[in-house]
């Protein structure tokens, strides 16, 4: 075997070994703190999204079903207050996707939270009244507040 072929022959297993070794390096970061506040708040936001997304699909695709929408809204409301207390002063660590501004601009973050909660209350009231156009307007108000908060307070 010539030296060029030998070095390519030896380089292949080395490259594979490095690649396999690195595959374990890119996994998700675990929240190992007591009570797992970051993981718990992320799960709460994901649960909210699982309720919120189907509502938006119904409104955007004109497949609005008042009964299904109301079920999703009720599920969403169950999670409304869960994530906020979990933004404690010592919870800005991986796997958090929150920006440091959550803790450095606490008044602004609190205003966003209050606006979000108020918009969810408006949405719930519109759903109870059964006013489809009011539901649409309230839903997109909540959506806009999600976007606004994410722009200022979430790493993309």
* Counted beta strands: 0
Mean pLDDT value: 89
Low-confidence stretches: 9-24
User: Which fold name is given in CATH as the topology?
Assistant: Four Helix Bundle (Hemerythrin (Met), subunit A)
Summarize the structure.
By secondary structure, this protein is mainly alpha-helical.
Describe it.
- By secondary structure, the chain is mainly alpha-helical.
- It has a single domain (37-153), classed as Cytochrome c/b562 (Four Helix Bundle (Hemerythrin (Met), subunit A), Up-down Bundle).
- Helices cover 70% and strands 0% of the residues.
What are the SSEs and their pairings?
Layout: H1 3-23, H2 37-60, H3 66-79, H4 101-104, H5 106-129, H6 132-153
Helix pairs in contact: 2-3, 3-5, 5-6
Which short descriptors sum up this protein?
156 residues; mainly alpha
